[in-house]
Design goal:
8-stranded antiparallel β-barrel; 194 residues; Alpha-Beta Plaits; alpha+beta
Amino acid sequence: MHAMQYELTFPAAYDMAVIRDRVAHVGHRLDAWHGLGIKAYLMRERGVDGSPVNQYAPFYLWHTAEGMNSFLWGGAFQGLVNDFGRPVVQHWTGLAYEEGGAAGSPAKVAVRRRRAVAEGVELSEAMEEAVREAGRLAALDGAVCTGAAVDPRHWEVVHFSLWDHDSPKATGEVFQVLHMSEPERDRLPRGRQW
């Protein structure tokens, strides 16, 4: 499993209806994308749920590297680049994925929490803790699914969770879910990824 996200941050006065309309018109294009487990079309609005910014920040869980590469290099991503410029694409190696008790429900919000892996920490212990946290989040009321991944270049762990209500029990940055594409969600490996 591979996790991926890019962020487009807009000025404070930017009309976020532009992003809502864009997702309404193009979101379905990845509904059958080979190799894609989940794409959550995410947005934050300045002043909503504590967000300091207006931001479009889709989050992906890829079942295959080929699907991810096809998206990035095969033309689909180019449309976003043409409209907004080329964002930095963050990428993490999968540690764990779990379905939550609300797995059949539509996701309303997402929570992303990033944290650095401190120097001197036993790496196996830090990664096992990330796996346990994914399981803990999945067991909470309203959890649709959770994932944990690591970027070993910057030694950062990311926890990503989707929730079926507006009051998630996870801590971190809260995003509105505008659309979900999940063509191969059932193929995402569950549990620990090594």
